[in-house]
Write a structure and sequence with these properties.
The chain is mainly alpha-helical. It contains twelve helices and no strands. It is elongated, with a radius of gyration of 21 Å.
């Protein structure tokens, strides 16, 4: 996952949120009332205002003011705002490559958003630790965040975690089987093939444990809605 991908995902997220805000507020928007609420420190209102000013939804575009509100929402603990602000730090509207300082600051905001439970930030952070391009490569931290994303319902992370347990020496492969079955239950065809192959590689004792774990994990994680 490179910097361009991170910026693109943030831009697409902004567009989606802006459309939601537009349709919710298409009748009439009392900007003054929203600004008064934002002044009280409400991070959700600050984020909504930030997106409105940044993208010009029913009001003139004012990106500087939009960035200010998004930053306030991020500082007040809104995980989505923290992730969006990381894109602003990276220079989403700039043609220039981000500096090392910008990369580290953005990574800090992504970390906060991930710790706050924002799924896109969790998967971004997992890939950052796995690839070692912005943060130092750390396989244990990468695995931690991939597992967190898998538990939150991210299909690709479920496959990644399954692969880690399947192919890494010394790890419990019955857990890998369980995650394959979760991904299969969530509609992934490769997971069905991979789980069948792994199952044949297991001992009879491990097969029983793998089936038990699969039932447990499917009950917990299959069909889980992304947040």
């Amino acid at each position: 996952m490179n910097i361009s991908f991170i910026i693109l995902s943030i831009v697409l997220m902004v567009v989606l949120v802006v459309l939601i805000v537009f349709f919710i507020n298409r009748k009439s928007i009392k900007i003054k009332i929203l600004e008064e609420e934002a002044a009280k420190g409400n991070p959700e209102t600050q984020l909504a205002l930030g997106l409105m000013f940044y993208s010009g939804v029913q009001i003139p575009v004012n990106k500087e003011k939009g960035c200010e509100y998004i930053k306030k929402a991020a500082e007040n603990g809104n995980a989505q705002a923290q992730y969006l602000y990381s894109g602003i730090v990276l220079g989403a509207d700039s043609d220039q490559s981000p500096t090392k300082e910008q990369l580290l600051e953005a990574a800090s905001w992504i970390q906060k958003a991930a710790d706050g439970g924002f799924l896109t930030a969790v998967t971004t952070l997992a890939n950052m630790y796995a690839e070692g391009r912005i943060l130092h490569k750390d396989s244990k931290k990468a695995q931690h965040y991939f597992l967190k994303a898998a538990e939150m319902g991210d299909l690709q992370s479920q496959l990644t975690v399954a692969g880690i347990y399947h192919f890494s020496i010394g790890l419990d492969r019955t857990i890998g089987y369980a995650w394959y079955k979760v991904a299969e239950q969530n509609g992934n065809e490769y997971a069905a093939e991979a789980s069948a192959k792994l199952y044949e590689e297991l001992s009879d004792e491990d097969k029983s444990e793998a089936l038990r774990k699969a039932d447990e994990y499917i009950s917990k994680y299959a069909g889980k809605k992304l947040n």
